[in-house]
């Protein structure tokens, strides 16, 4: 089983606590991503997702100029780069997340996503299981 160092995305776009929600949204559009880690120097301090923008900013009628610190998820779920892909997939399924920051000594070194598993034939089953468990939780017992 490969380690996350081998499959993670290493060149990760980030924003800082000085950025506002609009700047994060523009970066998400520019790089076609749904999640941006928030860093203070090289230390990860939060993550803001497209869902965070919708539920914590737009739905609560906050302006796009709101500080990312007010909108981002501060309770981080991270994993070490020497962890194996199966551990990451299991954690992602358990925590119901599609992207997982890879952190070493508090420093962001990459991100692993379900897509990273899916592009490797040997890890496709892990991606499928994680996505199935994430999807089941999101769609069970919730009215539209």
Automatic annotation (TrEMBL):
SMART domains: CBS. Coiled coil: none annotated. Residues 8-65, 72-128 form the CBS domain. Keywords: CBS domain. Signal peptide: none annotated. InterPro entries: CBS_dom (IPR000644), CBS_dom_sf (IPR046342), Diverse_CBS-Domain (IPR051257). PANTHER family: CBS DOMAIN-CONTAINING PROTEIN (PTHR43080:SF2), CBS DOMAIN-CONTAINING PROTEIN CBSX3, MITOCHONDRIAL (PTHR43080). This is CBS domain-containing protein. It comes from [Bacillus] enclensis.
């Amino acid at each position: 089983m490969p380690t996350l160092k081998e499959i993670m995305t290493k060149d990760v776009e980030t924003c800082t606590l000085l950025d506002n929600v609009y700047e994060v949204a523009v970066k998400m559009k520019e790089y076609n991503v749904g999640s941006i880690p928030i860093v203070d120097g090289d230390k990860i301090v939060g993550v803001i997702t497209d869902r965070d923008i919708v539920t914590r900013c737009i739905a609560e009628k906050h302006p796009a100029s709101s500080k990312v610190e007010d909108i981002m998820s501060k309770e981080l779920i991270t994993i070490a780069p020497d962890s194996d892909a199966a551990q990451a997939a299991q954690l992602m399924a358990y925590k119901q997340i599609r992207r997982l920051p890879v952190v070493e000594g508090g420093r962001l070194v990459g991100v692993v996503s379900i897509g990273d598993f899916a592009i490797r034939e040997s890890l496709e089953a892990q991606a499928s299981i994680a996505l199935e468990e994430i999807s089941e939780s999101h769609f069970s017992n919730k009215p539209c």
